[in-house]
Amino acid sequence: xxxxxxxxxxxxxYYGMRVSxxxxxxxxxxxxxxxxxxxxxxxxLLKMNPIHKxxxxxxxxxxxxxxxxxxxxxxxxxxxxxxxLLPSDPYQRSQVRFWxxxxxxxxxPSGRRIWMSKGEEQEAAKEEFMEGLKVLEGxxxxxxxxxxxxxxxxxxxLVPMSSWFYALETCANFNIEAECPKLMNWVKRCMEKExxxxxxxxxxxxxxxxxEIRKWEGLD
Length: 220
What we know:
Layout: E1 5-9, H1 14-26, E2 31-34, H2 43-48, E3 57-60, E4 63-66, H3 68-78, H4 90-115, H5 119-140, H6 153-158, H7 165-172, H8 176-179, H9 181-191, H10 194-197, H11 203-216
Parallel strand pairs: 1-2
Antiparallel strand pairs: 1-3, 3-4
């Protein structure tokens, strides 16, 4: 019996991009079901994630797995025959989880505040965002990827945000590459992988969405 793998997501979601990258890296055939960006929540989403009612959701043989980092771990454990995302050593694994949590707690929230604010609030968000990226650049160091020579859990967790960099720079007038050149070189290495390039949207399309939302919210 063939496995049924369905991903509920929507195109600008960096959390959903994570899951797409992981599935592509593992070579897993899956069906992508897109939710509308500004539409209501689909009956399938409400059924599969009745607690948080949020994307992404991975449905594996009819059973839902929610929250992107949990989904990544699930994918890595179920399809462990190819491209491991997490190290086998318990200590190293704990450190990878720490940095993935750092991305979610520090980088993603401040990035969102940049495009959802203006003035002093935006400047504060931009400062916090860049501080987070610089810390991550320090953790990357001279390595090709955060885990070493192969793309792993931290890389998959962070690289989707790069599709939003252009939009953030445009609406808040700053240059990420000027301050984090090593991190941007890492982004370029990741984008050379088909699993990443096919999972991330065009940055200009993301920027158009951000401009539309900011106009709707009265921020521009």
